[in-house]
Amino acid sequence: MKDRTEAWSKIKINPDWLYHWILDEEMMDKVYRFGILSKENLRKNNIPFIRDNSSNVGCNGTNYISVCKRLERNSFAYYRYIIGKCAFIISPDVEKINTEKIQFEVKRNGVFGKWRKPQIVVEERSIVNTPDEYLVKDQINFQDIIGLKVPFFWGDHDLEMYLDFLETTDTDLPIIDVEHGLVTEKDKIKRYLQDR
């Protein structure tokens, strides 16, 4: 039996990579064909939202797609949704937001306050639940997906799912173990699975 670590080599993990979890093979196929879509775009294209129920809140919003980064501190979304699951690794170059400028008026106090115009204040406010979460408007194209992340405790079934997807779609995305800084590719995984 071949040691599974032989199929892997070291890689430097980019701290700016974004992640979006993979629910199953059906989702991978739809993302390959249509990209990752907001719920509004899924409805416009008559694509059923996979497992559209309360158990996957935060996966896709009406007009935005929720992604997250792996931060050194305060990676709440990453640890809740990504670390133990398969995920797409998305280019950090996609347009994303996690704050927005809010403008509001502050009434002036004091004796002359009622004759002076209110002060306009502009403040940058978070529009996400956690510091490591970002929102991408409408769609993430498949071309913006730069890799496939394995769960922290991955098994051969995860590699088989990825290999099946890569062969069916004739793509060559790297398979990356983000937590351990390792990378492999389709041909190495194929050989490993045949030799085990």
What is the topology?
Layout: E1 9-10, E2 18-21, H1 25-34, E3 36-37, H2 39-44, E4 64-69, H3 76-82, E5 87-90, E6 99-106, E7 119-126, E8 133-137, E9 139-140, E10 145-149, H4 156-169, E11 175-177, E12 182-184, H5 186-195
Parallel strand pairs: 10-11
Antiparallel strand pairs: 1-12, 2-4, 2-5, 3-9, 4-8, 5-10, 6-7, 11-12
Summarize the structure.
By secondary structure, the chain is an alpha+beta fold. It has helices at residues 25-34, 39-44, 76-82, 156-169, 186-195, and strands spanning 9-10, 18-21, 36-37, 64-69, 87-90, 99-106, 119-126, 133-137, 139-140, 145-149, 175-177, 182-184. Mean pLDDT is 85; it is low at 53-58.
Q: What does this protein look like?
A:
It is a single chain. This protein starts with 8 loop residues before the first strand and ends with a helix. It has five helices and twelve strands. The model is unreliable at about 55-60 (pLDDT under 50). By secondary structure, it is of the alpha+beta class. The strands form three sheets. It has an eight-stranded mixed β-sheet. It has a two-stranded antiparallel ribbon with strand order 3-9.
Give the overall average pLDDT: 85
Shape: elongated
Strand order of the largest sheet: 1-12-11-10-5-2-4-8
Number of helices: 5
Structural class: alpha+beta
- Report the count of strand segments: 12
Distance between the termini: 5 Å
Strand content: 25-35%
Percentage of residues in helical conformation: 10-25%
Keywords:
eight-stranded mixed sheet, alpha+beta, two-stranded antiparallel sheet, single chain, 5 helices, 196 residues
